[in-house]
Amino acid sequence: MFVLSSPSGAGKTTLTRLLVQKEENIDLSISVTTRKRRPSEVDGVHYHFLTREAFEKMRDAGELLEWAEVHGNYYGTPAKPVEKALAKGRDVLFDIDYQGTRQLYKKAASDVVSIFILPPSIAEMKKRIRRRATEDEMTIKKRLETAKHELTRWGEYDYVVINDDLDAAFADIHAILSAERMKRVRRTGVVAFAKKLQSKL
Length: 201
Description:
Elements lengths: L1 E4 L6 H11 L3 E3 L3 E2 L14 E2 L2 H9 L3 E7 L2 E6 H9 L3 E5 L2 H11 L4 E6 L3 H10 L5 H15 L7 E4 L3 H17 L7 H10 L2
Parallel strand pairs: 1-7, 1-8, 2-7, 3-4, 8-9
Antiparallel strand pairs: 3-6, 5-6
C-alpha cells in the first residue's frame, strides 16, 4: 500500500493521477467524503460523495480503513475495494492526509510505504491554493492554516519528494515504487522460488 500525502497546493492530486495513468498494477483507493462536490469533480471518480449520515453509518459499521474530519468535512477509505485489490496482488495508492496515514500504520505498518510531497516554496503553495478559485476566502484561510500544520509532519514519512518540477517529482516517486516492489518482503513469489532452488542443492 502506497500513501501520498501533502499540504494543499503541493501538487499531490496531479501526481496521483499521473501514477494511476502510467504505473502498472496499481489501483487508486477512492475516498468517501461529505464535502460538497466541486464543478469539475465526478462522483465515483474523484470521490464517493456521501451525506454525513451515510458516512457515519459506514464508520460505525467498521467499513472504513481510516477516516478523519478536515475543515468540517469527513474523509475516509472504504475497506472492501482495498481488500479486493490486495487479494488480486495489486498495489493500492492512497491519497490521504497524515491522520489517515497514521491510522493505516497502526493497522498494517509493514505493508505501508508513505511519501510526503513538499511544495517548492510557501509562495507557490499559496498561489496554487488560491488558483483553484472554487472556495471562499474563509475556506482558503483554513486550508492555509492546515497546510502550515501538515508541513510539520514530513519527518513522519518514509520518503519526502519536493515537487518543484512535475516530471522530476514523478520520476522520484516511480523510483521509490520500483525499489519498494523489489524488496524481498513484498515479492510474494520470491520466497517459494528461493526455497525451491535450495532444495535442489
